[in-house]
Design brief:
The chain is α+β, with helices and mostly antiparallel strands. The protein has 4 helices and 7 strands, in the order H-E-E-E-E-E-E-E-H-H-H. The strands form 2 sheets. A 5-stranded antiparallel sheet has the order 6-5-4-1-7, sandwiched between helices. Strands 2-3 form a two-stranded antiparallel ribbon. A hairpin with a 7-residue loop joins strand 4 and strand 5. The longest helix has 22 residues. The radius of gyration is 27 Å and the shape is globular. About 10% of the residues have low confidence.
Length: 179
């Protein structure tokens, strides 16, 4: 039995209707959903304390926080001045997923505040989602806030566990950091 090759006949194509082309030129900005500014945003960066006191009287020690690993870098995108800066909105890489997260956290769980120019598109997008469009417009503003938070964080750590003795051996931030 000889099999003959089967060829498909091209179907008759219907004439295409002419679609008017928009007068707007297509650029990378019109194609992408979100545009990223090339200008850096001045934010305050900080590190999460490696060990924090926890539990009744602060006798337990826990590494980092529930959301961030100890020592991880976070960016402060918003502060609550009316609450004396006890809580901050931060952007950083999460403990479990490694993806960027945005959470409110206590100032006492952060240390080493410093001003940084942020270029990371992921951090800039999250800062814009929170509503930070200029944050601290200049480096001087960010330096001023970093100095204020650096003064407040140790005070809040002390006030939170006032009168409670440290566990033995203690590895909390205040005991590990040089005097």
């Amino acid at each position: 039995m000889d099999a003959e090759p089967v060829t498909a006949e091209p179907a008759a194509e219907a004439p295409l209707a002419e679609v008017p082309v928009a007068e707007v030129p297509v650029t990378a900005e019109t194609v992408t959903a979100e545009t990223v500014t090339a200008e850096p945003l001045w934010l305050v960066a900080a590190n999460v304390v490696r060990w924090r006191r926890y539990g009744d009287g602060g006798q337990e020690l826990r590494p980092g926080t529930k959301s961030y690993r100890g020592g991880s870098k976070v960016h402060v995108v918003k502060t609550y001045g009316g609450m004396a800066h006890e809580e901050l909105t931060t952007v950083g890489r999460g403990r479990h997923t490694g993806a960027y997260i945005t959470i409110d956290m206590a100032t006492r769980n952060l240390h080493t505040f410093r001003p940084v120019a942020v270029y990371s598109p992921a951090v800039l997008r999250r800062a814009a989602a929170v509503g930070v469009d200029g944050a601290w417009a200049t480096r001087e503003d960010a330096e001023e806030l970093a100095a204020l938070l650096a003064r407040l964080a140790p005070r809040y750590r002390e006030e939170h566990w006032r009168g409670a003795p440290h566990p033995v051996p203690c590895r909390c931030h205040d005991c590990l950091s040089p005097a």
